[in-house]
């Protein structure tokens, strides 16, 4: 899937839910490229900012959008990767803080 197509498709799906792409489009496109690479590699779009096991059942929590996106955006205005952000984050109305990893360590062991 081409990056532009993925961008437009996800934008239409996620914006009505209140999740926006980071205004740094270069960063967004790099992350989308990595999602496409992971789709080709594993058969699913594993989070490009985390180490995937290649076993879908083990990685279910980090298939983009990951299960950690909602609490991350609610608390920090951004997901772990800075792919999905809130309007306030994009408008610099809230600080761009480091988003800590929420994934439990036991999920990262293969």
Helix-strand layout with pairing:
Elements: H1 3-14, E1 20-21, H2 25-42, H3 56-59, H4 69-76, E2 84-85, H5 87-90
Give a description of the structure.
The chain has 110 residues and is mostly helical. It contains 5 helices and 2 strands. The protein has a two-stranded antiparallel sheet. Helix 1 (3-14) crosses helix 2 (25-42). The termini are far apart.
Class by helix and strand content? mainly alpha
Residues in helix, %: 40-55%
Query: What does the average pLDDT come to?
Result: 95
Order of helices and strands: HEHHHEH
Order of strands, main sheet, comes to 1-2
Main sheet makeup: 2 strands, antiparallel
Q: Tally the helices: what do you get?
A: 5
> What does the overall shape look like?
globular
> Which spans have pLDDT < 50 for at least 5 consecutive residues?
none
Proportion in β-strands = under 5%
Oligomeric state, counting identical vs distinct chains: single chain
Query: What does the radius of gyration come to?
Result: 14 Å
What's the number of extended β-strand segments? Answer: 2
């Amino acid at each position: 899937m081409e990056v532009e197509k993925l961008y437009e498709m996800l934008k239409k799906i996620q914006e009505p839910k209140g999740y926006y792409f980071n205004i740094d489009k270069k960063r967004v496109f790099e992350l989308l490229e990595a999602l496409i690479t992971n789709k080709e590699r594993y058969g699913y779009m594993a989070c490009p900012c985390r180490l995937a096991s290649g076993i879908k059942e083990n990685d279910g929590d980090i298939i983009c959008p990951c299960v950690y996106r909602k609490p991350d955006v609610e608390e920090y205005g951004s997901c772990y990767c800075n792919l999905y952000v809130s309007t306030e984050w994009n408008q610099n109305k809230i600080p761009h803080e480091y988003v800590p990893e929420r994934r439990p360590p036991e999920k990262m062991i293969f």
